[in-house]
Write a structure and sequence with these properties.
With 245 residues, the protein is of the alpha/beta class. The protein has eight helices and ten strands. Pfam families: ABC_tran (PF00005).
Length: 245
C-alpha cells in the first residue's frame, strides 16, 4: 500500500481559547506525520490541552487550519463529518469526566461503534480490546464507580482505539496513573501504532516520559497569548522503559 504523502495531522496558525480577546494559543503550528509520535510538552496553563482539543476537532479555533491526511477540517464536534470525527481517537486525563457513569465498561468501549452504526462488531471488538488493555474477569460488567481510575482509563484507551483511528491524541493520559499502569497503556498505544501506522500526539508535562515515548518533542512556551510551538529535540522511542515516568 502506498504511503499517504500528506501529514496525518497538520495544525497551521492556530489561535484558540475561551475568550476571543485573550486566546490561550496564538499562531501555533504543528505537524505530525503518519506513524510518527510527537510529544507536546508544557506547563499547566500554556494551552496544550486546548491545542489537543483543536487537533481532535473538539474545539473550534478562532483562526488557523486543521488538516487530517491533507483534508481541511470541515466541522467541529458533532458537526464534523463522520469520516473526520472517527479518524481521531482521544484519551483525556480524567477518565471519570470522560465516561458516562450509566454505562458498563463493555458498553463504554463499544459506544463509538454503536454511534456509527457498527454495533454488530461490538462483542468481538470489545473482547479483543479488553484483552489488550488488561480488563479481565467481570470488570467489563462493572460501571465507572465500581472500578479504579486505572481500570477506567484502560477502558477509555480501548474506546479510543475501537474505531481504528489514524490519529491518536492522548491528553495527559497517564497523569493520574501509577507507573505500572502507565507502562501498560503506553505499550497498548505503541502496539496499535506499530500495527496500524497511526500517528500520535501525546500531551503532557513529564519530559522524561514523553522523550522516551515519542520520536520527537515540541514545547509550548508561555501562556495567555504569544504562545508558539518550537521543536526542542528528537528522541528515540523506548516504550518498554516508560515506568520511570
Amino acid at each position: 500500500m502506498t504511503a499517504d504523502p500528506h501529514p496525518a495531522l497538520e495544525l497551521s496558525g492556530i489561535t484558540a481559547g475561551y475568550e476571543r480577546r485573550a486566546p490561550v494559543l496564538r499562531d501555533v503550528s504543528l505537524t505530525v506525520h503518519g506513524s510518527e509520535a510527537v510529544g507536546l510538552l508544557g506547563p499547566s496553563g500554556c494551552g496544550k490541552s486546548t491545542l489537543a482539543k483543536v487537533a481532535a476537532l473538539l474545539h473550534r479555533p478562532y483562526a488557523g487550519t486543521v488538516r487530517l491526511g491533507g483534508e481541511p477540517a470541515r466541522g467541529w464536534r458533532h458537526r464534523a463529518p463522520r469520516a473526520q470525527r472517527t479518524a481521531v481517537g482521544v484519551v483525556f486525563q480524567q477518565p471519570r469526566l470522560a465516561a458516562d457513569p450509566r454505562l458498563t465498561l463493555a458498553a463504554l468501549i463499544a459506544e463509538p461503534l454503536r454511534a456509527t452504526g457498527r454495533g454488530r462488531e461490538a462483542t468481538e471488538r470489545v473482547r479483543e480490546l479488553a484483552d489488550a488493555v488488561g480488563l479481565g474477569g467481570d470488570l467489563l460488567d462493572r460501571r465507572p464507580h465500581e472500578v479504579s481510575d486505572g481500570q477506567l482509563q484502560r477502558a477509555c484507551v480501548a474506546r479510543a482505539l475501537v474505531l481504528r483511528p489514524r490519529v491518536l491524541v492522548c491528553d495527559e493520559m497517564t497523569a493520574m496513573l501509577d507507573a505500572s499502569t502507565t507502562a501498560a497503556l503506553v505499550t497498548v498505544v505503541e502496539d496499535y501504532r506499530q500495527r496500524s501506522g497511526a500517528a500520535l500526539l501525546a500531551v503532557g508535562h513529564d519530559r522524561t516520559l514523553l522523550e522516551r515515548w515519542c520520536d520527537r518533542t515540541v514545547e509550548l512556551a508561555g501562556a495567555g497569548g504569544g504562545t508558539d510551538g518550537e521543536e526542542v529535540r528528537s528522541a528515540p522511542r523506548a516504550p518498554a522503559d516508560t515506568s520511570a515516568g
